[in-house]
Amino acid sequence: MNTLYTLLILFGAAAIIFGLYVMQKKHLSFTKRVLTALVAGILFGTVLQQLFGSESEIIASSNTWISIIGSGYVRLLNMIVIPLVFVAISTSIVNQDANSLKKSALSIILVLMFTTAIAAGLGAGVSTLFGLDSSEILAGEAEAARGQALEDTLTDFQTKSIPEQITEIIPRNVFYAMSGQGSSATLSVVFFAAFLGIVTIGLRRKKPDSAEAFTKFLNMLHDIVMRMVTLVLRFTPYGVFALLSRFVSTSNFSEISRLFEFVVASYLAIFIMFVIHLIILVVYKLNPVKYLKKASVPLSFAFSSRSSAGTLPLNIETQIDKFGVSSGVANLSASLGTSIGQNGCAGIYPGMLAVMIAVGTGVPMDPAFFIKLIIITAISSFGIAGVGGGATFAALTVLSSMGLPVGLVGLLIAIEPLIDMARTALNVSGSMIAGLVSARRLGEIDMATYNKDFNEIEETV
User: Fold this and answer.
1) pLDDT tens readout for residues 100-148
2) Which of 209, 366, 426, 447 has the most CB atoms in a 10 Å sphere around its CB?
3) Which stretch is the leader sequence (predicted)?
4) Whether the Cβ atoms of residue 111 and residue 440 lie closer than 8 Å to each other
Protein backbone atom coordinates (compact mmCIF):
# COMPACT_ATOMS: atom_id res chain seq x y z
CA MET A 1 0.00 0.00 0.00
CA ASN A 2 2.86 2.35 0.81
CA THR A 3 4.28 1.80 -2.66
CA LEU A 4 0.96 2.76 -4.22
CA TYR A 5 0.78 5.97 -2.18
CA THR A 6 4.36 6.82 -3.13
CA LEU A 7 3.56 6.33 -6.81
CA LEU A 8 0.49 8.55 -6.50
CA ILE A 9 2.56 11.29 -4.83
CA LEU A 10 5.21 11.06 -7.54
CA PHE A 11 2.48 11.18 -10.18
CA GLY A 12 1.10 14.36 -8.57
CA ALA A 13 4.55 15.93 -8.46
CA ALA A 14 5.15 14.97 -12.09
CA ALA A 15 1.84 16.58 -13.06
CA ILE A 16 2.84 19.86 -11.40
CA ILE A 17 6.27 19.77 -13.04
CA PHE A 18 4.63 19.12 -16.40
CA GLY A 19 2.34 22.08 -15.78
CA LEU A 20 5.38 24.29 -15.19
CA TYR A 21 6.86 22.96 -18.43
CA VAL A 22 3.67 23.85 -20.30
CA MET A 23 3.85 27.37 -18.84
CA GLN A 24 7.38 27.65 -20.21
CA LYS A 25 6.30 26.43 -23.66
CA LYS A 26 3.52 29.01 -23.68
CA HIS A 27 6.18 31.65 -22.98
CA LEU A 28 4.69 32.73 -19.68
CA SER A 29 7.12 34.95 -17.83
CA PHE A 30 9.95 33.54 -15.77
CA THR A 31 8.67 35.40 -12.72
CA LYS A 32 5.19 33.92 -12.97
CA ARG A 33 6.63 30.42 -13.36
CA VAL A 34 8.88 30.78 -10.32
CA LEU A 35 6.13 32.21 -8.11
CA THR A 36 3.70 29.53 -9.31
CA ALA A 37 6.27 26.87 -8.43
CA LEU A 38 6.76 28.42 -4.99
CA VAL A 39 3.04 28.40 -4.19
CA ALA A 40 2.59 24.90 -5.67
CA GLY A 41 5.48 23.57 -3.58
CA ILE A 42 4.02 24.97 -0.35
CA LEU A 43 0.52 23.65 -1.09
CA PHE A 44 1.75 20.24 -2.25
CA GLY A 45 3.96 19.83 0.82
CA THR A 46 1.15 20.91 3.15
CA VAL A 47 -1.25 18.37 1.66
CA LEU A 48 1.32 15.58 2.02
CA GLN A 49 2.01 16.43 5.66
CA GLN A 50 -1.68 16.62 6.53
CA LEU A 51 -2.36 13.26 4.89
CA PHE A 52 0.65 11.27 6.06
CA GLY A 53 2.55 13.20 8.76
CA SER A 54 6.03 14.71 8.54
CA GLU A 55 7.82 11.53 9.63
CA SER A 56 5.90 9.14 7.40
CA GLU A 57 7.85 6.53 5.44
CA ILE A 58 5.65 7.36 2.46
CA ILE A 59 6.79 10.98 2.45
CA ALA A 60 10.41 9.96 3.01
CA SER A 61 10.24 7.56 0.09
CA SER A 62 8.59 10.02 -2.29
CA ASN A 63 10.95 12.84 -1.27
CA THR A 64 13.89 10.62 -2.12
CA TRP A 65 12.82 10.83 -5.74
CA ILE A 66 11.55 14.42 -5.72
CA SER A 67 14.90 15.46 -4.21
CA ILE A 68 16.61 14.41 -7.43
CA ILE A 69 15.16 17.58 -8.92
CA GLY A 70 15.60 19.89 -5.94
CA SER A 71 19.01 18.71 -4.78
CA GLY A 72 20.16 18.26 -8.35
CA TYR A 73 19.27 21.86 -9.15
CA VAL A 74 21.08 23.18 -6.09
CA ARG A 75 24.14 21.11 -7.01
CA LEU A 76 24.07 22.60 -10.51
CA LEU A 77 24.04 26.07 -8.99
CA ASN A 78 26.84 25.20 -6.61
CA MET A 79 28.77 23.82 -9.58
CA ILE A 80 28.77 27.19 -11.33
CA VAL A 81 29.09 29.47 -8.28
CA ILE A 82 32.90 29.37 -7.98
CA PRO A 83 33.52 29.82 -11.74
CA LEU A 84 30.94 32.62 -11.77
CA VAL A 85 32.53 34.40 -8.80
CA PHE A 86 35.96 34.08 -10.40
CA VAL A 87 34.98 35.49 -13.81
CA ALA A 88 32.62 38.07 -12.33
CA ILE A 89 35.28 39.61 -10.10
CA SER A 90 38.22 39.30 -12.50
CA THR A 91 36.37 40.74 -15.52
CA SER A 92 34.75 43.51 -13.49
CA ILE A 93 38.27 44.61 -12.48
CA VAL A 94 40.05 44.32 -15.83
CA ASN A 95 37.20 46.12 -17.60
CA GLN A 96 37.23 49.09 -15.19
CA ASP A 97 39.75 51.81 -14.62
CA ALA A 98 41.60 51.75 -11.31
CA ASN A 99 39.85 54.75 -9.76
CA SER A 100 36.39 53.48 -10.61
CA LEU A 101 37.26 50.04 -9.21
CA LYS A 102 38.51 51.43 -5.90
CA LYS A 103 35.43 53.58 -5.45
CA SER A 104 32.92 50.85 -6.30
CA ALA A 105 34.59 48.13 -4.20
CA LEU A 106 34.96 50.43 -1.19
CA SER A 107 31.39 51.66 -1.49
CA ILE A 108 29.96 48.14 -1.74
CA ILE A 109 31.91 46.86 1.28
CA LEU A 110 30.96 49.89 3.37
CA VAL A 111 27.26 49.53 2.53
CA LEU A 112 27.34 45.80 3.31
CA MET A 113 29.02 46.36 6.67
CA PHE A 114 26.79 49.34 7.51
CA THR A 115 23.57 47.43 6.84
CA THR A 116 24.91 44.43 8.77
CA ALA A 117 25.63 46.66 11.76
CA ILE A 118 22.06 47.99 11.56
CA ALA A 119 20.76 44.42 11.32
CA ALA A 120 22.76 43.35 14.38
CA GLY A 121 21.41 46.25 16.42
CA LEU A 122 17.90 45.53 15.17
CA GLY A 123 18.18 41.83 16.09
CA ALA A 124 19.43 42.72 19.57
CA GLY A 125 16.64 45.26 19.99
CA VAL A 126 13.86 42.90 18.92
CA SER A 127 15.24 40.15 21.15
CA THR A 128 15.20 42.59 24.08
CA LEU A 129 11.69 43.77 23.21
CA PHE A 130 10.37 40.18 23.21
CA GLY A 131 12.26 39.37 26.40
CA LEU A 132 13.79 36.28 24.82
CA ASP A 133 15.58 34.15 27.43
CA SER A 134 17.58 31.03 26.57
CA SER A 135 16.99 29.61 30.06
CA GLU A 136 13.28 29.36 29.31
CA ILE A 137 13.82 27.11 26.29
CA LEU A 138 13.80 23.49 27.34
CA ALA A 139 16.25 21.56 25.19
CA GLY A 140 15.08 18.25 23.79
CA GLU A 141 17.37 15.37 22.92
CA ALA A 142 18.04 16.59 19.39
CA GLU A 143 18.85 20.12 20.52
CA ALA A 144 21.04 18.91 23.37
CA ALA A 145 22.93 16.61 21.01
CA ARG A 146 23.42 19.45 18.55
CA GLY A 147 24.69 21.73 21.29
CA GLN A 148 27.14 19.11 22.53
CA ALA A 149 28.32 18.47 18.98
CA LEU A 150 29.02 22.17 18.55
CA GLU A 151 31.00 22.22 21.77
CA ASP A 152 32.98 19.12 20.80
CA THR A 153 33.72 19.70 17.13
CA LEU A 154 34.15 23.46 16.87
CA THR A 155 36.73 24.07 19.57
CA ASP A 156 39.31 25.09 16.98
CA PHE A 157 36.82 27.44 15.39
CA GLN A 158 36.14 29.11 18.72
CA THR A 159 39.80 29.69 19.51
CA LYS A 160 40.42 31.61 16.29
CA SER A 161 40.29 35.35 16.75
CA ILE A 162 38.52 37.60 14.29
CA PRO A 163 41.87 38.83 12.82
CA GLU A 164 42.86 35.18 12.24
CA GLN A 165 39.58 34.46 10.50
CA ILE A 166 40.03 37.52 8.28
CA THR A 167 43.59 36.41 7.46
CA GLU A 168 42.26 33.03 6.32
CA ILE A 169 40.53 34.81 3.46
CA ILE A 170 43.94 34.81 1.72
CA PRO A 171 44.12 31.32 0.19
CA ARG A 172 47.20 29.19 0.75
CA ASN A 173 46.15 27.05 -2.19
CA VAL A 174 43.87 28.73 -4.70
CA PHE A 175 42.87 25.40 -6.24
CA TYR A 176 41.70 24.17 -2.84
CA ALA A 177 39.64 27.34 -2.44
CA MET A 178 38.17 26.87 -5.91
CA SER A 179 37.01 23.41 -4.89
CA GLY A 180 34.64 25.16 -2.50
CA GLN A 181 36.22 23.74 0.66
CA GLY A 182 36.01 25.73 3.88
CA SER A 183 33.66 28.44 5.11
CA SER A 184 35.82 31.19 3.51
CA ALA A 185 36.21 29.48 0.13
CA THR A 186 34.03 31.92 -1.80
CA LEU A 187 35.73 34.96 -0.32
CA SER A 188 39.13 33.38 -0.98
CA VAL A 189 38.20 33.04 -4.64
CA VAL A 190 37.08 36.68 -4.61
CA PHE A 191 40.48 37.65 -3.20
CA PHE A 192 42.40 35.65 -5.81
CA ALA A 193 40.24 36.91 -8.69
CA ALA A 194 40.71 40.50 -7.52
CA PHE A 195 44.45 39.95 -7.17
CA LEU A 196 44.60 38.49 -10.67
CA GLY A 197 42.61 41.38 -12.09
CA ILE A 198 44.86 43.97 -10.43
CA VAL A 199 47.97 42.18 -11.71
CA THR A 200 46.52 42.22 -15.24
CA ILE A 201 45.89 45.97 -15.01
CA GLY A 202 49.47 46.51 -13.82
CA LEU A 203 50.81 44.38 -16.69
CA ARG A 204 49.30 46.74 -19.26
CA ARG A 205 52.10 49.25 -18.71
CA LYS A 206 54.96 46.81 -19.29
CA LYS A 207 53.49 44.15 -21.57
CA PRO A 208 50.29 45.54 -23.10
CA ASP A 209 49.97 42.75 -25.66
CA SER A 210 50.01 40.02 -22.99
CA ALA A 211 47.59 41.98 -20.81
CA GLU A 212 45.22 42.54 -23.73
CA ALA A 213 45.32 38.87 -24.74
CA PHE A 214 44.62 37.75 -21.16
CA THR A 215 41.80 40.27 -20.83
CA LYS A 216 40.19 38.87 -23.98
CA PHE A 217 40.57 35.37 -22.54
CA LEU A 218 38.86 36.39 -19.30
CA ASN A 219 36.01 38.06 -21.20
CA MET A 220 35.61 34.95 -23.35
CA LEU A 221 35.55 32.80 -20.21
CA HIS A 222 32.94 35.16 -18.76
CA ASP A 223 30.71 34.71 -21.81
CA ILE A 224 30.97 30.92 -21.55
CA VAL A 225 30.19 30.86 -17.82
CA MET A 226 27.23 33.20 -18.27
CA ARG A 227 25.86 30.89 -20.94
CA MET A 228 26.13 28.04 -18.44
CA VAL A 229 24.27 30.20 -15.93
CA THR A 230 21.46 30.85 -18.41
CA LEU A 231 21.01 27.13 -19.06
CA VAL A 232 20.96 26.27 -15.35
CA LEU A 233 18.49 29.04 -14.52
CA ARG A 234 15.92 27.51 -16.87
CA PHE A 235 15.46 24.78 -14.27
CA THR A 236 14.67 27.29 -11.51
CA PRO A 237 10.86 26.76 -11.34
CA TYR A 238 11.28 22.99 -11.06
CA GLY A 239 13.95 23.33 -8.40
CA VAL A 240 11.87 25.78 -6.36
CA PHE A 241 8.87 23.44 -6.41
CA ALA A 242 10.90 20.41 -5.34
CA LEU A 243 12.74 22.29 -2.57
CA LEU A 244 9.61 23.84 -1.07
CA SER A 245 7.48 20.70 -1.22
CA ARG A 246 10.17 18.69 0.56
CA PHE A 247 10.72 21.34 3.24
CA VAL A 248 7.03 21.80 4.03
CA SER A 249 6.18 18.09 3.96
CA THR A 250 8.96 17.19 6.41
CA SER A 251 8.74 20.16 8.80
CA ASN A 252 7.93 19.28 12.40
CA PHE A 253 5.44 22.00 13.24
CA SER A 254 5.02 20.80 16.83
CA GLU A 255 8.71 21.54 17.43
CA ILE A 256 8.38 24.85 15.62
CA SER A 257 5.40 25.85 17.80
CA ARG A 258 7.47 25.19 20.93
CA LEU A 259 9.88 27.92 19.83
CA PHE A 260 7.15 30.02 18.23
CA GLU A 261 8.10 33.22 20.04
CA PHE A 262 11.64 33.16 18.65
CA VAL A 263 10.28 32.48 15.15
CA VAL A 264 7.90 35.45 15.39
CA ALA A 265 10.65 37.71 16.76
CA SER A 266 13.02 36.64 13.96
CA TYR A 267 10.51 37.28 11.21
CA LEU A 268 9.59 40.65 12.70
CA ALA A 269 13.26 41.70 12.76
CA ILE A 270 13.75 40.46 9.19
CA PHE A 271 10.63 42.31 8.01
CA ILE A 272 11.78 45.55 9.65
CA MET A 273 15.20 45.18 8.00
CA PHE A 274 13.51 44.73 4.62
CA VAL A 275 11.67 47.99 5.28
CA ILE A 276 14.99 49.65 6.12
CA HIS A 277 16.33 48.45 2.76
CA LEU A 278 13.40 50.16 1.05
CA ILE A 279 13.98 53.34 3.05
CA ILE A 280 17.62 53.35 1.90
CA LEU A 281 16.39 53.14 -1.70
CA VAL A 282 14.05 56.09 -1.13
CA VAL A 283 16.95 58.12 0.30
CA TYR A 284 18.84 57.50 -2.96
CA LYS A 285 15.72 58.32 -5.01
CA LEU A 286 15.15 54.76 -6.23
CA ASN A 287 11.55 53.53 -6.46
CA PRO A 288 11.09 50.80 -3.80
CA VAL A 289 8.00 49.36 -5.51
CA LYS A 290 9.90 48.70 -8.71
CA TYR A 291 12.66 47.12 -6.62
CA LEU A 292 10.25 44.69 -4.99
CA LYS A 293 8.68 43.69 -8.29
CA LYS A 294 11.95 43.18 -10.13
CA ALA A 295 13.74 41.49 -7.21
CA SER A 296 10.94 38.97 -6.66
CA VAL A 297 12.63 36.11 -8.51
CA PRO A 298 16.05 36.12 -6.77
CA LEU A 299 14.38 36.74 -3.41
CA SER A 300 11.93 33.88 -3.97
CA PHE A 301 14.70 31.50 -4.93
CA ALA A 302 16.85 32.59 -1.99
CA PHE A 303 13.87 31.88 0.27
CA SER A 304 13.34 28.38 -1.07
CA SER A 305 16.98 27.33 -1.53
CA ARG A 306 18.50 28.88 1.63
CA SER A 307 21.64 29.63 -0.38
CA SER A 308 23.00 33.13 -0.99
CA ALA A 309 25.76 31.64 -3.12
CA GLY A 310 23.27 29.59 -5.12
CA THR A 311 21.25 32.75 -5.82
CA LEU A 312 24.33 34.53 -7.19
CA PRO A 313 23.49 34.03 -10.91
CA LEU A 314 19.96 35.40 -10.44
CA ASN A 315 21.29 38.25 -8.34
CA ILE A 316 23.76 39.40 -11.02
CA GLU A 317 21.25 39.00 -13.84
CA THR A 318 18.59 40.99 -11.97
CA GLN A 319 20.94 43.86 -11.16
CA ILE A 320 22.20 44.18 -14.73
CA ASP A 321 19.09 43.45 -16.81
CA LYS A 322 16.31 44.78 -14.59
CA PHE A 323 17.92 47.44 -12.42
CA GLY A 324 20.35 48.80 -15.01
CA VAL A 325 23.37 48.48 -12.71
CA SER A 326 26.70 48.35 -14.54
CA SER A 327 28.22 44.92 -14.99
CA GLY A 328 31.23 45.73 -12.83
CA VAL A 329 29.23 46.95 -9.82
CA ALA A 330 26.65 44.15 -10.15
CA ASN A 331 29.30 41.44 -10.26
CA LEU A 332 31.21 42.92 -7.32
CA SER A 333 28.18 43.47 -5.07
CA ALA A 334 26.60 40.10 -5.77
CA SER A 335 29.87 38.20 -5.33
CA LEU A 336 31.01 40.06 -2.23
CA GLY A 337 27.52 39.77 -0.78
CA THR A 338 27.78 35.98 -0.66
CA SER A 339 30.47 36.18 2.02
CA ILE A 340 30.47 39.71 3.46
CA GLY A 341 27.78 41.60 5.32
CA GLN A 342 24.94 39.12 5.18
CA ASN A 343 22.19 41.09 6.90
CA GLY A 344 20.14 38.07 7.95
CA CYS A 345 22.61 35.31 8.75
CA ALA A 346 25.54 37.43 9.96
CA GLY A 347 23.55 40.36 11.34
CA ILE A 348 20.10 39.75 12.79
CA TYR A 349 20.61 36.14 13.90
CA PRO A 350 23.84 36.60 15.92
CA GLY A 351 22.41 39.81 17.43
CA MET A 352 19.24 38.08 18.61
CA LEU A 353 21.07 35.02 19.85
CA ALA A 354 23.68 37.01 21.79
CA VAL A 355 21.01 38.94 23.71
CA MET A 356 18.91 35.83 24.35
CA ILE A 357 21.90 33.91 25.73
CA ALA A 358 23.17 36.91 27.70
CA VAL A 359 19.79 37.16 29.44
CA GLY A 360 19.72 33.42 30.11
CA THR A 361 23.23 33.35 31.57
CA GLY A 362 22.96 36.56 33.59
CA VAL A 363 25.46 38.63 31.59
CA PRO A 364 24.87 42.35 32.25
CA MET A 365 23.65 44.18 29.15
CA ASP A 366 24.72 47.79 29.42
CA PRO A 367 25.25 50.14 26.45
CA ALA A 368 28.84 48.90 26.14
CA PHE A 369 27.53 45.36 25.59
CA PHE A 370 25.38 46.43 22.64
CA ILE A 371 28.10 48.62 21.10
CA LYS A 372 30.59 45.77 21.33
CA LEU A 373 28.03 43.35 19.87
CA ILE A 374 27.32 45.58 16.86
CA ILE A 375 31.01 46.20 16.10
CA ILE A 376 31.99 42.53 16.45
CA THR A 377 29.04 41.40 14.32
CA ALA A 378 29.88 43.82 11.49
CA ILE A 379 33.57 42.84 11.43
CA SER A 380 32.95 39.10 11.80
CA SER A 381 30.54 39.15 8.83
CA PHE A 382 33.58 38.72 6.59
CA GLY A 383 33.91 35.20 5.23
CA ILE A 384 30.55 33.74 6.33
CA ALA A 385 29.62 30.94 3.93
CA GLY A 386 26.70 31.87 1.68
CA VAL A 387 25.02 28.48 2.03
CA GLY A 388 22.57 26.90 4.43
CA GLY A 389 24.17 26.75 7.89
CA GLY A 390 26.33 29.85 7.41
CA ALA A 391 24.35 31.59 10.16
CA THR A 392 25.55 28.99 12.64
CA PHE A 393 29.19 29.90 11.97
CA ALA A 394 28.35 33.60 12.17
CA ALA A 395 26.68 33.02 15.55
CA LEU A 396 29.63 30.98 16.79
CA THR A 397 32.06 33.73 15.82
CA VAL A 398 30.07 36.46 17.54
CA LEU A 399 29.20 34.44 20.65
CA SER A 400 32.75 33.26 21.22
CA SER A 401 34.08 36.81 20.70
CA MET A 402 31.53 38.09 23.24
CA GLY A 403 32.52 35.39 25.73
CA LEU A 404 29.10 33.72 25.60
CA PRO A 405 28.51 29.93 25.55
CA VAL A 406 28.16 28.58 22.01
CA GLY A 407 26.58 25.24 22.86
CA LEU A 408 23.21 26.93 23.27
CA VAL A 409 23.07 27.42 19.49
CA GLY A 410 21.89 23.81 19.39
CA LEU A 411 18.68 24.81 21.16
CA LEU A 412 17.34 26.23 17.91
CA ILE A 413 17.91 23.17 15.73
CA ALA A 414 14.18 22.59 15.19
CA ILE A 415 13.48 26.01 13.72
CA GLU A 416 16.78 26.70 11.94
CA PRO A 417 15.55 25.85 8.40
CA LEU A 418 12.35 27.87 8.78
CA ILE A 419 14.11 31.05 9.88
CA ASP A 420 17.02 30.50 7.49
CA MET A 421 14.68 30.85 4.50
CA ALA A 422 13.78 34.45 5.33
CA ARG A 423 17.32 35.23 6.50
CA THR A 424 18.76 34.15 3.16
CA ALA A 425 16.29 36.31 1.24
CA LEU A 426 17.38 39.25 3.40
CA ASN A 427 21.06 38.44 2.66
CA VAL A 428 20.41 38.61 -1.08
CA SER A 429 18.39 41.80 -0.71
CA GLY A 430 21.30 43.34 1.20
CA SER A 431 23.76 42.57 -1.59
CA MET A 432 21.41 44.04 -4.20
CA ILE A 433 20.91 47.16 -2.08
CA ALA A 434 24.71 47.52 -1.85
CA GLY A 435 24.94 47.29 -5.64
CA LEU A 436 22.11 49.76 -6.24
CA VAL A 437 23.32 52.32 -3.72
CA SER A 438 26.92 52.13 -4.96
CA ALA A 439 25.85 52.34 -8.60
CA ARG A 440 23.61 55.30 -7.83
CA ARG A 441 26.36 57.15 -5.97
CA LEU A 442 28.95 56.50 -8.69
CA GLY A 443 26.69 57.10 -11.69
CA GLU A 444 26.93 53.43 -12.69
CA ILE A 445 23.19 52.83 -13.10
CA ASP A 446 20.86 53.30 -16.07
CA MET A 447 17.83 54.93 -14.45
CA ALA A 448 15.74 54.39 -17.59
CA THR A 449 16.16 50.64 -17.14
CA TYR A 450 15.45 50.82 -13.41
CA ASN A 451 12.27 52.86 -13.90
CA LYS A 452 11.08 50.78 -16.83
CA ASP A 453 7.76 49.05 -16.17
CA PHE A 454 8.08 45.44 -15.13
CA ASN A 455 7.18 43.87 -18.47
CA GLU A 456 9.08 40.62 -18.12
CA ILE A 457 12.56 41.57 -19.28
CA GLU A 458 13.77 38.13 -18.26
CA GLU A 459 12.24 36.18 -21.14
CA THR A 460 15.72 35.14 -22.32
CA VAL A 461 15.77 32.65 -19.45
Assistant:
1) 777 888 899 899 989 999 999 999 999 889 888 776 554 444 445 555 5
2) 426
3) none
4) no
